[in-house]
TrEMBL record:
The keyword Transcription applies. It comes from Amycolatopsis mediterranei (strain S699). One of its GO terms (molecular function) is DNA-binding transcription factor activity. Residues 1-60 form the HTH tetR-type domain. This is TetR family transcriptional regulator. Keywords: DNA-binding, Transcription, Transcription regulation. It comes from the Bacteria. InterPro entries: Homeodomain-like_sf, HTH-type_TetR-like_transc_reg, HTH_TetR, MT1864/Rv1816-like_C, Tet_transcr_reg_TetR-rel_C_sf. Residues 23-42 bind DNA.
Amino acid sequence: MRGEILAAAGRLLAELGGEDGLTIRGVARAVGIAPASIYQHFSDRAELVRGLLDHEYARLRDSMRAAEESLGETDVVGRVRAQIHAYCGFAMENPGHYRLMLANGASRPDPDARAEGPLLDVIDRLAAGFERCVEAGHPLRVTPGRAAAVVFVGAHGRVALFHSVLHRTGAELVEPFVDELVSLVFA
């Protein structure tokens, strides 16, 4: 039942374009259960949103992993490109989910500690990919972590433009832009 609740919440998030209108009652209606039934799985709306966030990050991770694994292990640069293409595709196809994920993607309970969270896990995945590129003889202009951050931030900015200023036009320009970003970090 938890999976059905999260799937319904995800559909509502897509319809609403964000989490603001997401309610326990609305999710219950979408699942076809009484609102009280949701409380067996989530104590309140905040916990439902956290569960949805985890669910969506799992979908994104699976998408990035599948894209990466669709290429041979020796195509390390192609695998990095595939990961960032999957990230951009997910973000462009799921604007409400993307906004939720960005708004809740990282935390730093201790100001001296490294921030953590699923959004940073995405950057770490990219950094690991760039590290494999270096190991395979593809030198970078910057460290693998910096390369991942540059590519991620650039891709995020391009997707944000797609959603806002460009009013969801220019999708065909995102992939070549991201490919150029990836190329720029190599020496």
